[in-house]
Design goal:
Elements lengths: L2 H10 L4 H4 L5 H6 L2 E16 L6 E16 L3 E14 L7 E15 L3 E13 L17 E17 L2 E14 L19 E13 L7 E13 L5 E14 L4 E16 L27 E20 L2 E10 L2 E13 L2 E12 L1 H11 L5 E4 L6 E6 L5 E2 L12 E14 L2 E14 L14 E14 L4 E13 L8 E15 L2 E14 L5 E13 L1
Antiparallel strand pairs: 1-2, 1-25, 2-3, 3-4, 4-5, 5-6, 6-7, 7-8, 8-9, 9-10, 10-11, 11-12, 12-13, 13-14, 14-15, 15-19, 16-17, 17-18, 19-20, 20-21, 21-22, 22-23, 23-24, 24-25
Amino acid sequence: MTANLTRNVVKYGAALLPLLGLGVPAAQARERKADVAPYIEIQQILVADLKDGSDVLTYTSVAAGIESSIQTRGAEAQVNLRYERRFFYQDNLGDQDVITGLARGGVQLVPNVLTLEAGGIATRSRVDLRGQAPSNTVGNIDNVTQVYSVYAGPNLATHVGALDVNASYRIGYTKVENESTGALPPGQLPIDVFDDSVSHSASASVGMQPGDLPFGWSVGGGWEREDGGQLDQRFEGKYVRADVTVPVSSSLALVGGVGYEDIEISERDAVRDNNGVPVVGDDGRLVTDETSPRLLSYDQDGIIWDAGVMWRPSRRTSLEARFGQRYGSETYYGSFGYRPNQNMALNISVYDTVSGFGNLLNDNLANLGTSFSSTRNPLSGELNGCAFGQTSSLCFNDVLQSAASSSFRARGVNGQLTYNTGGWNAGLGAGYARRRYFASQLGAVAAVDGLVDENYYASMSIGRQLDSYSSFDANIYANLLDSGFVDAPNVLGIGANAAYYRQILPGLQGTAAVGLDSFQQDGFDSEITASALLGLRYDF
């Protein structure tokens, strides 16, 4: 195992493709073509508050989007992008523009040697950990903000004699718009909201597979940096390490590595008034004091190590599990992949990383393969939390649980199951995420330092082609967030929706959908909304 791969597994628990050996045969890839499907649609939506029957919202939605898949000899890409304009009939609501999308792609600049990869996401996130979490985001939506993130960079993988040489670089940009947090517990102030950041990630390794020697080895290093616009926050991490792989049998190997790592996270103070209170700007964010010295919020350096096993009894099954020392404490991480046939795939990962919001979002994008299926809420038009693929699947719930500006240590487990047979297709995603935030005790966001939040989530989608002209799909979800703040409420969100699609004319499709959504904050009245939709879509 190369150091680069080890790094990815440590941080993201997602290095399943090379382990599973599920790449598409070259001959098959050459036969694939580009499939680009632009569309327009118009919809009429009704949203009713079931706790208050008088609160009924109606609006018209006009949208344009594109769904494309490219699989050729030299390029792979998957794009699901949608722009929507919502026209409200209530005087107290202004029209809204909503952009949602998910994209991943790669181009071989030098066949089988150098690849340029890129990805992007446009979605929504919760602003404050303690606030409400509506799923059907229409009207006056509190505690919901628009998020954009993109990345691009080259990957090098080649051989120099018996040596495997790998290198990569990535630059990313993430932007969070500012929105209202809505109602918070009495006496509690809003946390600092992420603004934007530029992130960099680079790594390189050289090694040999077992064969010429009775063991495999690799040495490598990496560097990461994220510069945030809010409070001039900075994350910087560097590492070097050496790894060995010792085969025990044809399907089992012992693995281990040791190295050195240095991570520093710092920020500047906010401008303060005459009473020493941090100043908040017109955008709702703290105003950075550019003259402030850098305030250290996290500083960890020293020896890192891990050891474990890799088990691959067949091309269909793989397991990796590791235990070690990192980030000043014990660490556990690993992955499991199982694909018994072409119709079913199971991916499970356990991860442990120190990161910031923008860098982690870029990392998730980079670990999503270029062949996946992303579904949308038929009523809101927004992407559901998980994307499913045959060789890689990913849920973004752990990243989007909040848009806090402070860096954090993230630990958790997530799993995805896909199943397709007899015209049915289904996907299940579930996970647990835990964050511990870092902030300087001398700075404006000292209250966040040491805060631990926990997020439990699950979602399921199922669909079927009924006949040549009609189909349906259904989705259910549940999400529980414990913010970690003293006296702050837990937030539970659950919901379900279903849609029926009918081809009316060639290219013209009619849609009917219904949904039920609820969220509950401890100490606040629960909210339950019912939604209904009628729409037309034309595919070019």
